[in-house]
Amino acid sequence: MAGNSRAQFSSRLGFILAAAGSAVGLGNIWGFPTQAASNGGAVFLLTYLFMVFILAYPLLVAELTIGRYGNANPIRSLLAVAPKQKTVAKIVGMAGLLGASGILSFYAIVAGWLLGFFANPMLKIVGLNDAAVWLETFSNERNLLLMLLFMLLTIFVVRKGVAGGIERWSSRLMPVLFVLFVLMTIYIMTLPGAGEGLKMYLVPDASHFSPDLVISAMGQAFFSLSIGVCAMMAYGSYLRKDANLPMTAAQVSLLDTGVAFLAGLLVLPAMFVAQKNGVQIYSETGALLDSDTLVFSVLPAMFDTMGSAGLLIGMAFFALMIIAALTSSIAMLEVPVSTAIEELNIERGKAVWLIGGLIAAFSTVIVFNFGDLFGLVISVTTEYAQPIIGLMTALIAGWIWHRNQVLEELKQGNPELESSLFWKIWPSYVRFVCPVLMGMVFLWPVLKGML
Question: Which 3 state secondary structure label does DSSP give 272?
Fold first, then answer.
C-alpha cells in the first residue's frame, strides 16, 4: 500500500459533497428525467429508487473500500487487494482509467454545448444576436471552442489538488446546484400544465411496468453513481481511515438520488408546461420526441415562450447543468491524473495539463468526425466498458479480496461493524447478487434480441 503522505479530503462533508458531485452529472439531470418521461414516470421513479438500493449502493461501498485500502490510484489499489491476480488487477485499473478518459472526451463536448446555451441569453440581451445564434447552431468550430473552454474549467479545478481544488469547488458548487434546483422547481410549479407533469411523475401507473423498464432503471441507477469508471475508487483513496464507509456511501447515494428526484420534479412538469405553450413533446404513438436532445430542444423552446422571464430561467437552468457537468468531469479527470502522478512520478500541475491535453485532443478528433465517432465512443464507454468494469470490481471485491482484510478495512471507521446487519449481508451480496444484476444490465439487450 502507498504511504500516508497522500493528499486527503479535509472533512467528511467535503468528501460527501465531492463524491456526490462526481455522481451528480448529466445522467441525473438529463438522463434520469428523460428515462422517466419515456417509461411512465412514477413507475420508473420507484423502480430506480429500488435499484439504487439493491445494486448501486453495495457496489459504491466496494469501490470506496478498495480505494481507501489501497490508499493510491485505482491501478495500485486494485493490485493491493488482488496481489496474486496482478494481470487482472492491472487490466481492470487500466480499463477504468481509459473508460473515465473516454467518457470525459464526449462529455466535454456536450458540456460545451451547455456553456453555449447558458451564454446565449446574455448575448441576446446586449444585442449580439448573430453570436447568440452561432452558439446554438451545430458546427465544428462552435463544438471545438466550447469543448476547449469546458476542458480548461475542468483542468483549472483539478490542478489545484484534492482539498484546494476538488473539495473546495465541490463544496461551493453543490449547494448552489441545490438552491437553483429548488427555486426553479417552485417557479415551474406555478405555471399552467405543470400539474399534469407532476401527476405523471408521482402517481404510479402499473401498466407501464415491464422487464425493459426494470433493466433501464437498473442501468440508470448504476451509471448515475459513477460506478465502473474507478472515480469512486480514486476519491476513496483520499478518505480518512476513521470514515464510516457504509454510512458515507449511503449519504452519497442519498444526495445523488435526491438530485435525480429533484431533476424529475423540475423537468417533467417543465415538459408539460412546454406542451401547454404549444411545444410538441410526444409523437402520435406516445413516444417522447427528441429524447436525446431534450434539454437542447424542448426546454429552450419552452423558455422562448416565456418572454423576458424565460431568458433568466433558461440561464439558471443551464447554469445548473454546467455545475452538474463540472463536478462530474473533475472526478473523471482525477482518475487518470492520480495514476499519472504516482506511476510516472510527475507533479500534479504537469500531469493535469498532460492528461487534460490528451483528452482534449481526442475530443477534437471526435468533433471533426462527429457522425462516425460521437455515438460510437458513448456506446463503447457507457454501454460496454462501464458495466464490464463494474462487474469485474464486484468480482474482485466479492471473490478475490480476502474477507478478513475487507472486514478490517471497514472496521477502521466502524469498530462494531462485524456484528451489524450490513456485514451479515454485504459480503455475500457483492459476491453473488451484484454480478448477476450487472450481467442483466449488460446481457438483457442481447437476450431480448434473440427472443
Answer: helix
3-state secondary structure at position 319: helix
Please check whether residue 325 is in contact with residue 107, taking contact to mean a CB–CB distance below 8 angstroms.
Answer: yes
Q: Is 205 helix (H, G, I), strand (E, B) or coil?
A: coil
For the beta carbon of residue 192, count every other beta carbon within 10 angstroms. 10
Which helix (H) or strand (E) segment holds residue 296: the answer is helix 294-304
Give the span between the Cα atoms of 235 and 231, in whole angstroms. Answer: 6
Distance CA 351, CA 144 (A): 22
Domain 12-450, CATH 1.10.1760 — does that match?
no
Question: SS3 for 411?
Answer: helix
Q: Give residue 104's identity as a one-letter amino acid code.
A: L
Query: If residue 431 lies in a helix (H) or strand (E), which one and from where to where?
Result: none
Q: What 8-state DSSP symbol labels residue 138?
A: -
Give me the sign of the Cα torsion angle 373, 375, 376, 379: positive
For the chain, what is the radius of gyration of the CA atoms?
21
Rounded to an integer, the average pLDDT of 247-261 is: 92
Q: At CA 41, angle to CA 35 and CA 44, rounded to 5?
A: 65
CA dihedral (212, 216, 222, 223) positive or negative: positive
End-to-end Cα separation, the chain, in angstroms:
48
DSSP 401: S
* pLDDT, tens digit, 9 for 90 and up, residues 103-140: 999 999 999 999 999 998 888 888 898 998 999 899 99
Residues 304-354: pLDDT tens digits?
A: 777 777 788 888 888 988 998 999 999 999 999 999 999 999 999 999 999
Domain boundaries, the chain: 12-450
Residue type at 205?
D
| Residue found by looking up cell 412546454 in the block | 274
Whole-angstrom distance, CA of residue 446 vs CA of residue 451: 9
Query: Which contacts qualify for 279-282: CB closer than 8 Å, 24 or more apart?
Result: 279/305, 281/37
Measure the CA–CA gap between 393 and 74, rounded to whole angstroms: 11
Report the range of poorest mean pLDDT among 20-34, 180-194, 226-240, 427-441.
Answer: 20-34
Cβ neighbours for 422, distance < 8 A, ≥ 6 positions apart? 246
CB burial of 413-430 (b: ≥16 within 10 Å; e: otherwise) equals bbeebeeeebbeebbebb
In single-letter form, the type of residue at position 47 comes to: T
